[in-house]
Structures are given as structure tokens and as C-alpha cells.
Amino acid sequence: MSNQIFTYVKCYLPNNFYLLTKSSHMFVRRILYYFEYRIKLPTPNLSEVSVVSTEEHIDEPSLHGGRLRSFPHVRGNWPSFIYIEYPEQDHLHKTINKLSNFVSSLNILCNRCDGIHLSLSKTFTIQYHMIKPLSSALQEVLGYIESFELFFDSVEVYCNEEKTRTFIALKADIYSSKILANITDKIDDILDDYKLPKFYKDPSFHISILSVNGNKKNDILRIVEDLNKILISEADTLLEAVNIEKIILKTGNKYFQYHLKNNNGV
User: Fold this and answer.
1) What is the H or E stretch that residue 140 is in?
2) CA–CA distance from 111 to each of 99, 159, 253 (Å)?
3) DSSP bridge pairs for 188
4) Which backbone phi and psi does 235 adopt, to 5 degrees?
5) 51 φ, ψ to 5°?
6) Known catalytic residue: 117?
7) Long-range CB contacts (< 8 A, 24+ apart) of 53-59?
8) Which residue, among 148, 149, 165, 166, has the nearest Cα to 157 in the 3D structure?
9) Which residue, 13, 14, 53, 113, is most buried by CB atoms nearer than 10 A?
10) Which entry of 64, 91, 93, 117 is annotated as an active-site residue?
């Protein structure tokens, strides 16, 4: 017995306690069979285990001027777009006031657009790991573009792709549009590398200043000539060219700024 190695297994079988040698293979199998098929494990208590909510995101258009999300909210996707932020200048606000007052006088309910900007891409979604390489690619390309003057010479009417909002906008002049088209071509090349949607084929560069809920394009087009008369009659005092020195990528709640070269090449 002194040369044998003993293994003690205490089994809660009725009226039995077994002292087993290492060689008792058959009996060990019987014990394992008993534990596997006869003994029931207690039900675990899950009352204190935290649960992550999977509640569906629900849009509330009434909380943001009646606007509807253009695509469903998906956790992990970052809505993004590239744009030029229009400088906060008094003459633009005066222009908006003039046009807004005229539209309102015709009993057309319109709202001022927040965050006035000129889009250089469609809205697209990316995942977090794509943000840094995309931003680096934009920095490399946009850093070689010179700053330029942006000028608007007419009022135009647009409707979004979902036909949920109509916009009264200021359209860029021909000279500015050529520069902007060159920029969007470069941006499109980068977006294409990431399998992201390109900008519109024949873009009409503009800044939206007023919006009307629903598809009211035909209604607004009836007064667009009057809106242009207001713009032209006071263009010298209300609307001036502005110098554009940076382009912005907004992705989720993050902002990336890309400064353009000045006319001295810096």
C-alpha cells in the first residue's frame, strides 16, 4: 500500500464514501457518469446581473425643427460630411433678414438654417477606425489648395433627396464654383478609395439660409424672381465676397479643420 498513490473522492451518494486507488478506472467512470447525468445543478441567481439596454433609437422631429433623419441611426456608425463654414458676418445676417421678411409676408412659414455652411460632400457614415486615416488623407490633399474668395450672386431653391425639406439658398458665382468643383474632385478621389459616396455629378454650390418643411419647391420658385430682385438691389451693401481659409470634416461629435495655403504659399 505504501507504494500506491491514493486519490480521495468524496461522493454524496446515499450511505457511501469511497477510497479509490489510481487504478480504479471503471469505478471512476461510474462516478463521473453519476455526476454528469444524475445530479442537477442549482438554477443561477441572475437578479443582480446588469443588463445593457438595446432600446431602439427613435427620432423626434419636433425637437429639431421638423427635420427627419436621412438614414436610420446605427450604433457604431459615425454620420460625417465635409464642408466650408461660412464666416459669421453681419452682412449675411442682414441678407437673411431681408429675404426671410419677404417670404413670411406671403404667409409661408420658414426657419433660419443653423450652422450656415457650403457642402463639399454628401453625408456618409464611417466607423471609428476609419476616422484617422480618412482625416490624414484629407489633410495631405487639402493642404496644397490655396485660400480663395467665395461670392454668391443669386437666390436658388432646392429640395433634399428625401423631399422632406425645401431650402432657399444663395448660389455661388461661376468663378467660385470652378474652384469648388476642383476641390470636390479631389475629395471625391479620397472618398472613392474608402468606398464612400461621391458628391453630386453636376453640383450646384450654395449655402442654405432658410428652410420650409415638406416639398414646397414649386411654391417657392414662384417668388424666386422677387427674392433675386431683393438680393441684386442691395448686393453692394448686403452681400460681399468672403475669404475661405479652411475646410472642415465633421464626423459624429468630432471636428477636423484643414487650413488652406494663403496667397503667399504658406
Assistant:
1) helix 128-142
2) 11, 15, 24
3) none
4) -60, -35
5) -120, 130
6) yes
7) none
8) 166
9) 113
10) 117
